[in-house]
Amino acid sequence: MPVEPPSAPQLRQQDPAFVRGVFAEIAQRYDRANSLISGGIDARWRRALTRAVVAWQPARLLDLATGSGVLAEQLGRALPETEIVSADFSLPMLRQARDVRQLPRLVLADGTRLPFRDSSFDALTVAFGLRNMSSWPTALAEMRRVLRPGGHLAVLDFSLPGGWLRAPYRLYLHWVLPKLAALATGSRASYEYLAESIEKFPSGNAMCRLLEEAGFRQATAQTLTLGVVTLYLAEVP
Ligand SMILES: C[S@@+](CC[C@H](N)C(=O)[O-])C[C@H]1O[C@@H](n2cnc3c(N)ncnc32)[C@H](O)[C@@H]1O
């Protein structure tokens, strides 16, 4: 399937140069910041994704936007027979995956232009990465292209809770989180973009529609921790 060039980023936090700069700055403190800011719940979110992937028993899996490799490492433990390829467009983050986690098969790659052949993976995972890509439809079309027919996709990302929790959560996102992140990473600016990116990122039915427009079927959304994060699963026809 031909892949169109990525369209211009809609938001600063989708600008590849900005995103690379952010992750280059925080690469060495990323793991610690993650656990501190989420109070360790991020491990539970990745476990929910891992459980879904284990049910698929893929022979070959791509963990896209792998970052420091925290999810790829967990998947590797749960699926010892699976060949896991870990890709990211940030060299400093991939260095963490190599030096801290000794992950094999690391590939420097942009999610909107993947250097893999059509139908080359049985499953693809992307945790907290799609939101920052310059074009969500282009990235999803690329994911579909590299998955084989019948292959599976799991996307994990932030969302906004509904109901009474939405207003206090937004206060937390805009006012508390950047300060916490500044303490954890020494870089407040790097996390100021996070709240806006979460506000703009499609979630629930809107994300399921995007997945189906990209050619996936049976897209489902499962909210975690009162809707702060959503796990999307979909399949290639
Ligand atoms: C928040 S980290 C998530 C890392 C890991 N998946 C996790 O669960 O902790 C986001 C990662 O996405 C990567 N990323 C953002 N845009 C990307 C793109 N267009 N192509 C590949 N990687 C990208 C960043 O470099 C960063 O390492």
Give a verbal description of the structure.
This protein has helices at 16-26, 30-38, 41-56, 70-78, 91-99, 136-146, 166-185, 188-200, 205-213; strands at 60-64, 83-88, 106-108, 121-127, 147-158, 217-224, 229-235. It is α/β, with parallel strands linked by helices and 237 residues long. It has a single domain, classed as Vaccinia Virus protein VP39 (Rossmann fold), CATH 3.40.50.150. Strand 2, helix 5 (91-99) and strand 3 form a beta-alpha-beta unit. It is globular and about 45 Å long. The two termini are 14 Å apart. Residues 1-7 have low confidence and may be disordered. Bound molecules: S-adenosylmethionine. S-adenosylmethionine is lined by residues 19, 23, 65-67, 70-71, 88-90, 93, 110-112, 127-129, 132-133.
Topology:
Elements: H1 16-26, H2 30-38, H3 41-56, E1 60-64, H4 70-78, E2 83-88, H5 91-99, E3 106-108, E4 121-127, H6 136-146, E5 147-158, H7 166-185, H8 188-200, H9 205-213, E6 217-224, E7 229-235
Parallel strand pairs: 1-2, 1-4, 2-3, 4-5
Antiparallel strand pairs: 5-7, 6-7
Helix pairs in contact: 2-7, 3-4, 7-8
The chain binds S-adenosylmethionine.
S-adenosylmethionine binds at residues 19, 23, 65-67, 70-71, 88-90, 93, 110-112, 127-129, 132-133.
